[in-house]
Amino acid sequence: MLLRLERVSRSFGGVQAVDGASFAVRQGDVHGLIGPNGAGKTTLLNMVSGLIPLTGGSIFLADRRIDRLPPHRIAALGVARTYQNIRLFPELSALSNVIVGEHLRRKDTVLESLLFMPSARREHEVARERARALLARVGLLDRAEERAANLSYGEQRRVEIARALAADPAVLLLDEPTAGMNPAEVSAVGRLVTEVAAQGHTVLLIEHNVKLVMSICRTITVLDFGKVIAHGPPAAVASDTAVIAAYLGAKP
Amino acid sequence: MEELRDLFLTYQSAIGFAGINGLLALSVYATLSCGQLSLANAGFMAIGAYASALLTVHATLPFAVVLLAGTIAPVVFAVPLGLPVLRLRGVFLAIATIGFGEVVRLGFVNWDYTNGALGLVGIPQRTGLGSIYAALAVTLFGFWRLRGTRSGYALEAIREDEAAARTMGVHSTAHKLAMFVLGAAIAGLAGALEAHFTFMVSPGGYAFGRVVDMLVFAVVGGTVHPLGPVVGAVFLTSLPEVLRAAGGWIGIPPGPLRLFLDGAILLAVILFLPDGVVSLWRRAGKRRVREGHAA
């Protein structure tokens, strides 16, 4: 198991946003994390990437404990993410956004640049080329020089995915990557995610589009009121009575 | 030729101050470039000025060594100060760093060894236009070479969204501290140059108003490019000289006119050119491109 959560809890004052959630994500899987609004999905992702501390439990990445590490250390261990409420660098171009994503892969130093060493220029060129390739992959090469703030909603989401992939992460956390997208864009993202997983990246996906989740996820974890209420392959989860009760209400 | 020489001699000190102010504006730009509003730089400048002045007065050292000491002295304070205060954001960081500046100033007011509020006078003049503009050129060169590097991108990312930058592996504390310390070093260097240009240092020269000046230079010039703060500093420093000539023509004393114009320029820039005076170049460039396409 690549990513393992053990009895993870998080409370905000009196609210128990995540309540003893345990599950594991297998290497190379596309793992869905679903649940009604307010179930604690984003809170969980924020804890995995180190943005908020846990109030209980622990998180392991390849058997190494990562909760309590600062976000940049967790990123260095191979975790990249996108955000539900899009957090691109608005004043930077789409291309620059993706180049920032390559931070962990670049090795050049300011000293090399001050001394005009060829390695500095080469690293920058390589970073630009890789970023352009990633933008091409999400279909936005023609928008590379546009300020991120000027891109459409769907385009911004795709730049964010490209930026996260730029780190070549072991685990990719996607928080509602298709929110606000049209059906054509949704299926393009679905194909991209499947492709990314086939290349060995592990994906943990929060998504409300049930059709998409059912078609691309190998395993699904269902969260309700901060607790894991179901876990398993899509078909089993879809027919689980607790899941149906959480989404539609229990039979009287 | 003779007239040109006279002109140069008349404005030599103004040209020098323009360069020193350019350095000071860049010292504020260092932290602004990663989104941190730090106002400790008048304090760092004071430390650099006093340290270098004391060395010149009490020891016989080459000027380069004195300048180096003036650059390093504030760094000794900036590292332990930066570690705790850079945890603060926005206006809270500004307030904490203003506090530091005032502590430094009051420290010198009460320090008998440096003549308290009177300060040190009769410092030999060792700064020339050459050393000022060499320092400015080296600093600008550094900022220019920072662009496009891994750290250059990281700083821009921190300015735009620090938390997002961190989840991309950017060690934001280290980058912020590095720029805070760099800003302190540049301010110290400017202080050392100024002390040996004006023959004196006194605590009154490093009060809160001084750091506000630095900030205004940077904002008027623009912080989207390292040339911006320098342009702002040169522009606002030469303004009184221009006004003195203009005031003579229209018969208004230049003093009050200058304060009025400073305020009006700042307001106009904030309202109409939020990216500063340097953004005029870029706008002109874009317009040319557009017209080129239309043609």
Describe this structure in words.
The complex is a heterodimer of chains A (about 250) and B (about 300). Chain A is built from 10 helices and 10 strands. Chain A is α/β, with parallel strands linked by helices and about 250 residues long. In chain A, the strands form 2 sheets. In chain A, strands 6-7-8-3-9-10 form a 6-stranded mixed sheet, sandwiched between helices. A 4-stranded antiparallel sheet of chain A has the order 2-1-4-5, with helices on one face. In chain A, helix 3 crosses helix 5, helix 3 packs parallel to helix 6 and helix 5 crosses helix 6. The longest helix of chain A is centred in the middle third of the chain and has 20 residues. Chain A is globular, with a radius of gyration of 19 Å. Chain A starts with a strand and ends with a helix. By secondary structure, chain B is mainly alpha-helical. At the A-B interface, helix 2, strand 6, helix 3, helix 4 and helix 5 of A face helix 5, helix 6 and helix 7 of B.
Q: How many distinct helices of chain B?
A: 12
Strand count, sense and barrel status of the largest sheet of chain B are: none
Highest-level CATH class of the largest domain in chain A? Alpha Beta
The level of helicity of chain B is over 70%
Gross morphology of chain A: globular
Unreliable sequence segments of chain A: none
- Give the averaged pLDDT of chain A, no decimals: 94
Mean pLDDT of chain B: 91
The assigned structural class of chain B equals mainly alpha
CATH class of chain B: Mainly Alpha
CATH H level of the largest domain in chain A: which superfamily? P-loop containing nucleotide triphosphate hydrolases
Helix content of chain A: 25-40%
Strand fraction of chain B equals under 5%
CATH fold name of the largest domain in chain A, please?
A: Rossmann fold
Order of helices and strands of chain A: EEEHEEHEHHHHEHEHEEHH
Can you write the helix and strand succession of chain B as a string?
HHHHHHHHHHHH
Oligomer: heterodimer
CATH architecture of chain B: Orthogonal Bundle
Overall structural domain count of chain A: 2
Q: What is the CATH fold-level name of chain B? A: ABC transporter involved in vitamin B12 uptake, BtuC
Helix count, DSSP H or I runs of 4 or more residues of chain A: 10
